[in-house]
Amino acid sequence: MNRVLVTGGGGFIGRRLVEALRRQASVVLAPTRQDWDVAVDDIPKWKVDHVFHLAGVNGVGGSWQDPFRFHQVNAQGTAKVAEFCRRSQCSLSYVSAYCYGLPSRLPIAESHPVRPNNPYAFSKFQGEEVCRFYHEYFGVTVTILRPFNVYGPGQGDDFVLTRIVRQALDPATVDIEVRDLAPRRDYVFVDDVVDALIRTASFSSYAVFNVGSGTSHSVEEAIQAVLTVSGVTKAYRSLHERRQHEIPDVVADITSIHKAVGWQPLVPFHDGVRRLVEAEART
């Protein structure tokens, strides 16, 4: 990969991916949404060997408010990128999302039935279907990654770990409040996701990989981890607000990606929380 395009290069994962690629001396094109909007603009005739497609809209809550917008950007936008790859004869890495819905078994392997239970996951899976079609009928080389709950410094407070950390570090906040203490998630640090993207980009056919830690932590355990690493003592409480179609627990089976490219997460949960706390304390 001498020349690569990173759509969504100004986003949470995209920024770190661009930095990592540039450290490898790749020529990296990384337009931000202000430069180029995947939902609106045509793709310029860039000359690249590989595309990392990260551009999209995120968030389960927002997707219930505007499901068409999520489909337009995440599904139709991916079709635009896949068509660019077809015409340019370059390979594609697509960053999907957790799209299995309520799991029937844990851990969740890639062979588990895909049952998106919110418009965000549905739109990302539709992007996967575009990629599969373009591989099957046009021969585009595609690798799809399904990250579970990505976290790390630089993430917005729409995400639960960032909200917890900011409440813990804010002297004006007496108690840490969350909607629900019970849900368990498989948290994977952003740098590990970047490593997975780079390692799997050289596939020469079609592959789908989970990217997670292989373990899960409840929201309450996340709060306790934040308080421990920050040295802060605060009470915490639940607002007892269960999200629509809440999933109680998810754990990624990451056997496939480990066997294929030797990838495994290198940042344990408490170390990742420490990095997040340290970064927020500096802001």
Molecular structure report:
This protein has helices spanning 12-23, 60-65, 67-88, 119-138, 160-169, 190-200, 219-230, 255-261, 269-282, and strands spanning 3-7, 27-29, 50-53, 91-95, 142-147, 149-151, 175-178, 184-185, 187-189, 206-211, 217-218, 235-238. With 283 residues, it is of the alpha/beta class. It has a single domain (3-282), classed as 3-Layer(aba) Sandwich (Rossmann fold), CATH 3.40.50. It has a 6-stranded parallel beta sheet with strand order 2-1-3-4-5-10, with helices on both faces. The protein starts with a strand and ends with a helix. The model has no long low-confidence stretch (mean pLDDT 96).
Give keywords.
single chain, 283 residues, alpha/beta, Rossmann fold, 6-stranded parallel sheet, two-stranded parallel ribbon, globular
* Helix/sheet category: alpha/beta
Query: What overall form do the CA principal axes indicate?
Result: globular
Going across the major beta sheet, what is the strand order? Answer: 2-1-3-4-5-10
Question: Could you name the ranges where pLDDT drops below 50 across 5 or more consecutive residues?
Answer: none
Order of helices and strands: EHEEHHEHEEHEEEHEEHEHH
Q: What is CATH's topology name?
A: Rossmann fold
CATH architecture: 3-Layer(aba) Sandwich
Helical stretch tally: 9
- CATH H-tier superfamily: NAD(P)-binding Rossmann-like Domain
Number of domains: 1
Count of beta strands: 12
Which percent band covers the strand fraction?
Answer: 15-25%
Whole-number radius of gyration? 19 Å
